[in-house]
Amino acid sequence: MKSIKTRIPKFLGYAPVTGTGWSIAVTLPKSEVFADLKRLTATITIITLLLILLSIGTAFILACRISRPLRLSAEHLEVVASGDFTKEVSPIYLNMKDEIGMLAKSINKMQTSFTLLIKCVADASTKMVNLISHADDNMP
């Protein structure tokens, strides 16, 4: 409904007055009725955008916390794969109680096993060289 004088869109509400046979009517401009709704919509939109930004930030931080140790583990394995067994796994990762800690402990165990294996092969080679040189000395 629009006001005849001002052409402003309005809402009309009416209700009977009990026991009188009369009714009462009230009109309010449409802009007044929806003013709080517009503010509420703006507030909800702002809060939603802030929560989305917060969620993106949290996801980024979590992704970095997960990917960094994995990347460092891969880099460490590259060093080990090149034959350098002297670089140790960071104690920070060895003390973790999650999957990253399990991975670090496994890498450390593998590195220790390889180092011992190489030491055993080197010791066996030294013994063989000594045996062969003793055998050469005892030959006429």
TrEMBL record:
<dbReference type="InterPro" id="IPR050398">
    <property type="entry name" value="HssS/ArlS-like"/>
</dbReference>
<keyword id="KW-0418">Kinase</keyword>
<keyword id="KW-0472">Membrane</keyword>
<dbReference type="GO" id="GO:0000155">
    <property type="term" value="F:phosphorelay sensor kinase activity"/>
</dbReference>
<dbReference type="Pfam" id="PF00672">
    <property type="entry name" value="HAMP"/>
</dbReference>
<dbReference type="InterPro" id="IPR003660">
    <property type="entry name" value="HAMP_dom"/>
</dbReference>
<keyword id="KW-1133">Transmembrane helix</keyword>
<feature type="transmembrane region" description="Helical">
    <location>
        <begin position="12"/>
        <end position="28"/>
    </location>
</feature>
<keyword id="KW-0812">Transmembrane</keyword>
<feature type="transmembrane region" description="Helical">
    <location>
        <begin position="40"/>
        <end position="63"/>
    </location>
</feature>
<keyword id="KW-0808">Transferase</keyword>
<protein>
    <recommendedName>
        <fullName>histidine kinase</fullName>
        <ecNumber>2.7.13.3</ecNumber>
    </recommendedName>
</protein>
<keyword id="KW-0597">Phosphoprotein</keyword>
<dbReference type="GO" id="GO:0005886">
    <property type="term" value="C:plasma membrane"/>
</dbReference>
<feature type="domain" description="HAMP">
    <location>
        <begin position="64"/>
        <end position="119"/>
    </location>
</feature>
